[in-house]
C-alpha cells in the first residue's frame, strides 16, 4: 500500500489528538481530585462508589438517631439519679422517725418533708425533651404524673408500658427511657402508694407502721437503681454502635477514595509522560513536514 503524505499526516493528527485527550483527562483529574466522575469513565468503580456512599448516608442517619437517643437517655438517667437521692432522703427520714424519741409534732413535720419530696419526684418524672415527656412511654405528648387524691398513692398516671425507642440499625431499636408504668410497679407495691403510706404513718404518729415500711423504702431505692442500670446499658449500647458506625465510615470512605479519587503521584507521572510524548511528536512533525522540494532548491 502506498503511504502518502496525507496518510502520514492523518495518522499523526489522530495520535496527537489522542494524546491531547489523555492530557485533558489527566488535568481534569488533578484539578477535580476525582479520577472517576462519570459512569462512562469506569462503570464498575462508579457504581460501587455510589453504593458505598448510600451505605454511608444510611449510617449517618442512624448516627443522628443515636445522638438524639443519647441526649434523651442521659437526661432521663440524670433524672433517675436525682430521684434516687430523693428516695434515700425519704429512707433517712423514715428511719429517723421510727425512733420513739420523736413526738407526734416532729413526725407531722417529717410528713410535710415526705410530701415535698413526693412533689419533687413528680416534677422529676415529668421531665420533657422538646415536646416529649421522657417517662410517659409512647404516650409522650401528655405529662405522665399529676397529683390526684382519688388515684392510687394520690398520683394519677397517664404513661404506658411502651418505652420510647430509637432505630439504631435496620430492624434494631433501643429503649431510651424508662416508662412511668415501670417506675410505679415495684415488688413492694405502687411506688407512690408506698410514699403515701410513709406520710400517713407519720401523720398518725404510728411508730410500728413506720418500722414496717423500712423494707418497702429500701425496695424503692433498689427498684429505681435497677431501672437506672437498665437505662445505662442502653446508653452503653448506643455509644458502642455510634463508634462502630464511625469506624465503618472510615473504611468505607477509604474504599471510595481508592475507587474514584485521583492518585496524584500516578497522575503527575502520567501527565509528564504525555507531555514528553506530545513534545516529541511535535518535534518529529516539524522535521517531517518541513521536507519539501523547496528545501533542496
In short:
The protein is mainly α. Helix content is 68%, strand content 8%.
How are the elements arranged and paired?
Blueprint: H1 5-32, H2 43-97, H3 104-125, E1 128-129, E2 132-133, E3 145-147, E4 155-157, E5 165-169, E6 172-175, H4 180-184, E7 185-186, E8 189-190, H5 191-203, H6 207-212, H7 214-260, H8 264-289
Antiparallel strand pairs: 1-2, 3-4, 5-6, 7-8
Helix pairs in contact: 1-8, 2-3, 2-7, 3-5
Structure keywords:
297 residues; mainly alpha; f41 fragment of flagellin, N-terminal domain; 2 domains; two-stranded antiparallel ribbon; 8 helices; 8 strands; 8% strand
Q: Would you write up a description of this structure?
A:
α1 (5-32) packs antiparallel against α8 (264-289) and α2 packs antiparallel against α7 (214-260). The chain has a two-stranded antiparallel sheet with strand order 1-2. The protein contains 8 helices and 8 strands. The protein has 297 residues and is mainly α. It has 2 domains: 9-32 and 263-297; 52-253, f41 fragment of flagellin, N-terminal domain. A hairpin with a 2-residue loop joins β5 (165-169) and β6 (172-175). Helices cover 68% and strands 8% of the residues. The longest helix has 55 residues, at 43-97.
